[in-house]
């Protein structure tokens, strides 16, 4: 029996109202992503890439259409229901790192595991931080870390929970080229080792080319980009 797509969006619409104007960002968008697939979503600035990511991750709800995760309804759940699925199946890496300033590197990585009452939260977090080369920076706070180090903590946090899906939104956007390249190599190395499904939003064509598929968001819909 064929496995259902791990992520499926059907006839997705998203509209916002600005003053008296109705702005349609996504219109009738369809998407299917297989388990273990690496997919890059590209498009011009303001095309709705981050909005789409938020809808797929249940951080926002669509105006119309539906999102399914692992063959089950997702977008129709209430916030608590979506949060439960997120905690069980998803990891996140953001452009702005999203580390808690009052927590050390180790504590930041441990937090999502502790929220799930994982019995081996510290051990898994130490292992993840070691994989990103930060075993000597465990007790440092975000303000004591460089941008590249903060993003490595974010990678460790995302993979420590062993997510089925990793959402990455412009993960190199706040980094210089050399540091960004290091993060890219680390991201794809860890992703390959974990067999995680990767959904990556980026304007960086070099980064997008590392994925198995590229989808271009144009006029609210996705277009498959032919591989070179």
Structure commentary:
With 228 residues, the chain is α/β, with parallel strands linked by helices. Helix content is 34%, strand content 28%. The protein is built from 7 helices and 10 strands. The strands form 2 sheets. It has a 6-stranded mixed β-sheet. A 4-stranded antiparallel β-sheet has the order 2-1-4-5, covered by helices on one side. Strand 9 (213-218) and strand 10 form a beta hairpin. The longest helix is centred in the last third of the chain and has 18 residues, at 177-194. The two termini are 32 Å apart.
Helix content: 25-40%
Give the strand order of the largest sheet, numbering strands 1, 2, ... along the chain.
6-7-8-3-9-10
Major beta-sheet overview: 6 strands, mixed
Strand content: 25-35%
Mean pLDDT: 93
> Poorly predicted ranges (pLDDT <50, ≥5 residues)?
none
Count of separate DSSP helical elements:
7
Protein structure class: alpha/beta
Query: Any idea what the radius of gyration is?
Result: 18 Å
Count of distinct strands:
10
**What is the CA–CA distance across the termini?**
32 Å
* Bulk shape: globular
Order of helices and strands: EEEHEEHEHHHEHEHEE
Which keywords apply here?
4-stranded antiparallel β-sheet; 34% helix; 28% strand; 228 residues; 6-stranded mixed β-sheet; 7 helices; single chain; alpha/beta
